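#structure-requests
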Amino acid sequence: MRRTSLDELPQLINVLRGEMSLVGPRPEMPYIAAEYEPWQWQRFRVPPGMTGWWQVNGRSDKPMHLHTEDDLYYIQNYSFWLDLRILLKTIAVVWQGHGAY
C-alpha cells in the first residue's frame, strides 16, 4: 500500500471537510514543529495538503522535517498552474513508484 500511496486516500475525507487541500505543505508532527526555528513557522500560513512540492521533487528521499524550504518555495510561488503541475507530477511519481518506502 505504501508503494502505491493508497494509504493516503483516507486523507480525501479531510480535503472534503475543508481541513486540508489537495496541494500544500504536508502536515507536520507536533513534536517536530515544536522545535522549528521562527522562519520555519511560515509553512503553516496555508492549509496542509495531500501532496506538495517536496513530494514530487524527492518524496520519501527527502525527510519531511528537513525540507521546510520546499514548502516555503511552494507558498511563495503559489498559483493555479503550480498546483496543476504538482498534481500532474504526483500522478507520474506515484505511477512510477519513485521514493515510496
